[in-house]
Design goal:
Two copies of one chain form a homodimer.
Chain A (H helix, E strand, L loop, with lengths): L15 H10 L9 E3 L6 E3 L5 E10 L11 H17 L4 E11 L5 H17 L3 E9 L4 E11 L15 E5 L4 H18 L11 H8 L6 H8 L6 E4 L4 H12 L1 E6 L7 H9 L4 H7 L6 E5 L4 H4 L5 E9 L4 E4 L5 E3 L11
Parallel strand pairs in A: 4-5, 9-12
Antiparallel strand pairs in A: 1-2, 3-6, 4-6, 7-10, 7-11, 8-10, 9-11, 12-13
């Protein structure tokens, strides 16, 4: 998706490792007060004073997590940052710094890496995280991106996976399933393109889904929203691996059960239309799809009035005693045991 | 180098991502007081109170940074941790936590990953760093390891690359070049083995070199040693990319020149013998070899008496005005401009 038909191609090896790092990182500005020293020494130096430090890491592999046939490099760089920032948000913390390590095969020219770093820079600016370190090296095949995000929080606001209690309400932000269906649309277009490279895709009916897949955003606003509502979640988790597997994680770590209500799942109208077009069950996609960088959290029953009707949040269920198990309650009011069928990058 | 002729091979995909992470990380103990929460949530939580936080990251790629033909997986895991801890040591800081991300192709059975994690665990115990996070995923080809190390230091003890002054003494720890020659010995044995798989290598004459290549150690002792000698280095850097390129980094960032003396380079007798055997100039290897996880630092001239004769340290040169340039002074007392020919993982 590098649109220029006559792109300039500069071999990465011409620059050497240090030259390449200097070139790619020169646009990273330091904006966080906690960043004492960014890129350019053996390590970055951070200063969090009396705050707690939060750290998360993710690795993205070409052919496993993304396909460059429809994922522009700039979007990939943006999404790689978002997926890490989302993990920090899921601690109810504020992302402050990231490190970025890249391995690329020599089929990538410098201009491709520049695009990737443009996306990283855009996300770093949007989420106000300082890029404070990294590594750039060769791969035998494809592109691999490893990002570590660092954040800060007061001890009192930190939210773990193990704090949910029986009778707590289960809440999800935004809507779910759209990123997965965006991927299905892009996969279909790729197949059409392979058969007829001159076909002009008409993607107007899918813009929201494609945006959810190619340019997701992390819910950095949730911390502020909850703070304003005077709600402290009892537990919280990022659902980018799929709602069902993350509900199971929350329940196991909190030693509780859960009833999830099918009719409460927040689905975008475009998502519902496209599920019908693809003849796929929308509930199955919504609970198993993954890549929705939304947050799942539990709140005390007495906080119900503070959150009801808020367009940012949907109450989708409630926690139960552990012995009651983890169930989806269908529209027909039957209870089905919830299984983790979230995305599995290890499966063959 | 998995020696068992009838190894058990368990497919990684049987476990799934979460099962695999649980299985591989169950031996990681938390020993650092600053680790509030380790593996098992969206992010780890760290608490450094009034200390400064130091962060460094490195990516290792099969076929680029290591060859599994002679690098046992356990050693690889150990070395991957060491190389990151070394960067923290080079800040004159103490490593406290690491995150470990791994991508593997499905040719690796579970037992191979267990070996890798055994090495990681061994190093984590040796260096007293807590493994607080990570990611495990598939690769299209080979094994990729990305480690981020976190450390702590008082602001006053932190040592950067940009603090060297003209007339400062240039000091290196340990000896240099041995890791590179260890690699040459292993490469030669691999070629012999490819021709005759029944050959029994006699590596007695090379034990030190091979150990430096396969099981290097980070100089966590240097911080304590310097503290005891009441020396605060003016600048410091890790030389795993090669002495010459790191001297140039120090000089550029500190805006000074340098005279490095060939006859002061600390070389192990085994290293000198093997350079003769391979008919390679020992000075060239010593200053360009890389993978010696030693530290290079500068001290004020008046600290000379505190450090002279100390077996841990060799004074190998002194800093000059920037305009005088960066030179190697040979045994014949001629001055040669120092060039960075450190290892370049980006070159084709």
């Amino acid at each position: 998706m590098i649109e220029d038909k006559n792109p300039q191609r500069t071999s990465i090896s011409q620059l050497g490792e240090f030259g390449l790092i200097d070139h790619l990182t020169k646009n990273f500005a330091i904006t966080q007060a906690s960043t004492l020293k960014g890129i350019g020494d053996d390590a970055a130096v951070l200063d969090f004073k009396d705050k707690k430090v939060v750290v998360s890491t993710d690795m993205l592999v070409e052919g496993v997590h993304f396909d460059l046939a429809y994922m522009p490099l700039k979007h990939l760089g943006y999404k790689a940052v978002v997926s890490n920032v989302s993990d920090i948000c899921a601690m109810n913390a504020k992302a402050t710094q990231i490190t970025v390590s890249i391995a690329v095969s020599n089929r990538f020219p410098l201009e491709a890496l520049e695009e990737l770093f443009e996306g990283i820079t855009l996300a770093a600016n949007e989420y106000k995280v300082d890029v404070v370190g990294g590594d750039t090296t060769s791969s035998q095949k494809g592109l691999i991106i490893s990002i570590t995000a660092i954040g800060e929080a007061d001890e009192a606001e930190l939210t773990y996976r193990n704090g949910a209690k029986s009778n707590d309400l289960l809440v999800v932000t935004g809507d779910i399933g759209a990123a997965y269906m965006g991927l299905q649309v892009l996969e279909r277009e790729k197949q059409v393109f392979l058969v007829n490279p001159n076909s002009q895709p008409d993607l107007d009916a899918y813009t929201y889904l494609i945006e959810r897949q190619l340019k997701p955003e992390a819910r950095k606003d949730v911390r502020t929203l909850l703070h304003a509502l005077e709600i402290k979640p009892t537990s919280m988790i990022d659902i980018s691996d799929g709602l069902s597997s993350e509900i199971i994680h929350l329940c196991k770590q909190s030693k509780v059960g859960c009833n999830l209500y099918e009719d409460k799942l927040p689905l975008d109208p475009q998502f519902i239309n496209v599920c019908e077009e693809f003849d796929i069950d929308s509930t199955t996609v919504a609970i198993n799809g993954g890549e929705d960088y939304e947050l799942l959290f539990t709140i005390k029953m007495e906080d119900f009035d503070k959150i009801k009707g808020n367009p940012n949040f949907s109450i989708i269920g409630h926690m139960t005693q552990e012995s009651e198990g983890i169930h989806l309650v269908t529209r027909a009011n039957t209870k089905i045991a919830l299984k983790a069928r979230g995305w599995n990058p290890i499966a063959e």
